[in-house]
Amino acid sequence: MAYTNVLFDIDNTLVNSAFLIAETLQKSTLKEGIDIPVSRFRSLIGMPGDEILKRFGVENWQRVLERYSVDFSKNMYKLSYFTGIKELLEKLIQEKIKIGVVTSKNKKQFFDETKLFPEIADLKIITTSDDTEKPKPSGDPLLFTIHHHDLRKKSTLYVGDSMYDMQAAYEAGIDFAAASWGALPGTKFEFAKYVLKSPADLLTLI
């Protein structure tokens, strides 16, 4: 099927960031006297940070997120695109495909954390968690994006690495492609129309 619009998750889909996020959240939470393994944080990457902390029963989640933001900013130099992502974005733009991001980051986090990635920061289609009342895995962020930017569902593909991305696409009624290069091993993408082994595989769908 030919797609004219491609929407992406960011963390561990475009940018190799999930482990740094999980590690920073774990260290920030530990300072509250709560010891949660990094692996448990990693398993929930794809949800907003406040939702992750609330799920673990962290009462002072606002303070943890403030500490997280400071520490994460100091270590952003460790982040990078996955191999082939920058070239993929450039090629999609050359092919006149509308591209954008739908992320669980809030607006401040988005602009703070994409400073090193202008190809993402400069996109015209950007939906963050504070654009809708319900974040992913709700389909609302994707539906907001489709309506706000006058996109057609049938010609829109969402690309993400987590079950939360897949659930959001399923609820929104649009096709989903799993970015297996950033997904946790063993993740079952039962509602995915495509399971991509590399960013280059996406070009064959367009």
From TrEMBL:
Keywords recorded for this protein, A-Z: Hydrolase
Keyword check for Hydrolase: yes
SUPFAM superfamilies found in the cross-reference section: HAD-like (SSF56784)
Annotated transmembrane regions: none
Signal sequence extent: none
Gene Ontology terms, MF aspect: hydrolase activity
Coiled-coil residues: none
Gene3D superfamilies: HAD superfamily/HAD-like, Putative phosphatase, domain 2
Keyword Hydrolase tagged: yes
EC numbers: 3.-.-.-
NCBIfam families in UniProt: HAD-SF-IA-v1
UniProt-recorded name of the protein: HAD family hydrolase
Lineage of the organism: Bacteria, Bacillati, Bacillota, Bacilli, Lactobacillales
